[in-house]
Design a protein that fits this description.
Elements: E1 2-6, H1 10-21, E2 25-29, H2 35-40, H3 52-55, E3 61-64, H4 70-82, E4 88-91, H5 97-109, E5 113-120, H6 125-128, E6 131-135, H7 138-151, E7 158-162, H8 166-193, H9 201-208, H10 217-228, H11 244-254, H12 260-272, H13 278-291
Parallel strand pairs: 1-2, 1-3, 3-4, 4-5, 6-7
Antiparallel strand pairs: 5-6
């Protein structure tokens, strides 16, 4: 099949490469991408977004792979105004599922199909395949299914989760779980790093990768990171979040589901961004006031 890929960043470029390697035709829309980069990735272009109707045969498929929020809103509104009835728009970014439900309704008013796809796999997806969580009505999903099957791993990794919004909802929860898993690994490695033993954390991670109950792809990546930089001295412990953890926690609160692990893992990310915690200062001050406990002067 053929489609337009809007966004040629790490994910969009990897997806383009995987699609074109399997024989699909992909035209790229990204003003920041060079002709050489697009060609080396297997795509055609780059084209302006308004050029999609002339570049593809109807019914067309346009896949947005840009950051969630204002950028996605701009891209989708332009696509809805540019494409024709029976065309399909795919949002593969990490949009909030409520926004995807709204986008599906806006597309339907114009006779355009809409599919929301949660995509996991990162920079490894081009070779290993992307985990895909799909939301949307049966007809537009079927229209893009050949591309979805190509992007997914050889076995598994692809689910039509339900109606519009379901794909991004499942991806939201997926990322919330990811927060908790990464936090547990990180805490465990810090406990070992702070112990009386001079442990080779890279060797421990490598051993854990085989036969243990905590082996996983994240552990594979931890082992690789520790092999490259055993003390992680080349990076700062500043951890961003892209929103899905917050949305997962909000959903848990809305539905009265206790989710302490995911919640605390998000709060730990917030703490990582502080050079010094006023909260910790306040706790130290209170301990001094009520118990006469010693406090440390500023460095």
């Amino acid at each position: 099949m053929e489609l337009a890929m809007i966004g040629f960043g790490r994910m969009g470029a990897g997806m383009t490469g995987r699609l074109t390697a399997a024989g699909h035709r992909v035209v790229v829309v990204d003003p920041a991408a060079s002709v050489e980069a697009v060609a080396s990735g297997g795509g055609e272009g780059p084209l302006p977004i308004e050029g999609i109707p002339d570049a593809l045969e109807a019914p067309r498929v346009a896949w947005s792979m840009v950051p969630a929020g204002a950028v996605t809103e701009d891209v989708l509104s332009t696509l809805f105004a540019t494409l024709s009835p029976d065309d399909v728009v795919v949002d593969g970014g990490n949009s909030n599922y409520r926004e995807s439900q709204r986008h599906a309704a806006e597309a339907a008013e114009r006779g355009i199909g809409f599919v929301d796809v949660g995509v996991s796999g990162g920079i490894w997806g081009r070779t290993e395949g992307f985990g895909l969580m799909v939301g949307g009505a049966a007809e537009p999903v079927a229209q893009v299914w050949p591309a979805l099957e190509t992007l997914a791993p050889a076995e598994g990794g692809l689910v039509h989760a339900g109606p519009s919004g379901a794909g991004h909802f499942v991806k939201m929860v997926h990322n919330g779980i990811e927060y908790g898993l990464m936090q547990a690994y990180a805490e465990g490695f810090e406990i070992m790093e702070a112990s009386e033993f001079e442990l080779d954390l890279g060797a421990v991670a490598e051993a854990w990768r085989h036969g243990t109950v905590i082996r996983s792809w994240l552990l594979d990546l931890a082992a690789a990171a520790l092999q490259r930089d055993p003390g992680l001295s080349q990076l700062r412990g500043f951890v961003e979040d892209s929103g899905e953890g917050r949305w997962t926690i909000a959903q848990a609160i809305e539905t009265d589901v206790p989710a302490p692990i995911i919640t605390l893992s998000l709060l730990e990310r917030l703490r990582s961004r502080q050079d010094e915690s006023f909260t910790a200062k306040m706790v130290a001050a209170l301990r001094r006031e009520f118990g006469g406990h010693a406090v440390r002067p500023p460095e």
